Amino acid sequence: MNVLSRLFTTPHFLAMPAIGIEVSDTFVRALSFSGSPGALRVSWWSEEALPHGAVSGGAINEKSAVVEVLKKIRTAHGFSFAHISISEQQSYLCEIAIPATSHEEVPRVIELHLEEQVPIRVAEAIFDSIPDERTPTEVTSTNRSYRIAAAQKKIVETYISVCAEAGVVPLSFDIEAGAVARSVVGTRDARPLLIIHLSEDDTGLYIVSGGMVRFSSTVPLVLGEKVPEEIARAFANEAARVREFWETHKDAHRKIQGVVACGRGATF
Predict the structure, then answer these.
(1) In sequence order, which residues have a C-beta less than 8 Å from that of residue 15 and are 6 or more positions away?
(2) DSSP β-bridge partners for residue 60
(3) Are 246 and 205 in contact (CB under 8 A)?
(4) Do 87 and 24 meet the contact criterion of CB atoms below 8 Å apart?
């Protein structure tokens, strides 16, 4: 931070301080930080249960129930802006290599190839892209690789509508895997890691390398204090399958160097 920014800090109403919100099948969770970069601390967090069936597989079935819970949290803590994570089951990650082109043309070119990578029609999809700098030797004057996060427009529009009715302004939407990865992997940690996200709804298996999520898989396994042997075995097999996929993938090059377990189930 330079001298000018220390002397003339951004006014609070322009800074748009935002909290993080996760909508799962069973809870709405919210988290707020205070402090400055490098010295952040949790200022408050909240967890409110959702009625059964209000959200299923990340899809909002009962808007009024989710709106009511969001309003309750917003009223209690007095925030306006939020970053929202979307369930892994309602979104997709992929990698697309396209001919080098101008920044403005990238979305249009990606649209031409999107249906080859995700099971969503282009007209019904919303997506964002980021250049993949993991393998600079492969970036040539005629090719550029991009990491893509995509979801159905109607899913995102439903979340936007729910936020609007609850008086919350969403500043961004992120896939759950990306949000989890940023919270548990250091910004300078480029190692290939396997993240096991154990929630009360399902289990997410994410491969992170170079600070980016490279592969994700969600399995309907809920791990708890007493896990039947067959479920534990099925989970172990799935984790081994994901690891093998990554380590034998032609672009991986590196073996998994660590495993990070997180989420509610990681405490058992």
Answers:
(1) none
(2) 55
(3) no
(4) yes
Q: What is the b/e burial string over 47-74, where b = at least 16 CB atoms within 10 angstroms of the residue's CB?
A: eeebeeebbeebebeeeebbbbbbeebb
Give the sign of the dihedral formed by CA 10, CA 12, CA 14, CA 15. positive
């988290």: which residue's tokens?
Answer: 31
pLDDT digits 0-9 by tens, 205-252: 999 988 888 888 888 776 555 666 777 787 888 888 888 888 887 555
Give residue-wise pLDDT tens across range 78-132. 999 999 998 888 888 888 888 888 888 999 999 999 999 999 999 999 999 888 7
For residues 97 and 145, is the Cβ–Cβ distance under 8 A? yes
Please, what sign has the CA dihedral across residues 187, 193, 194, 198? negative
pTM, full prediction: 0.81
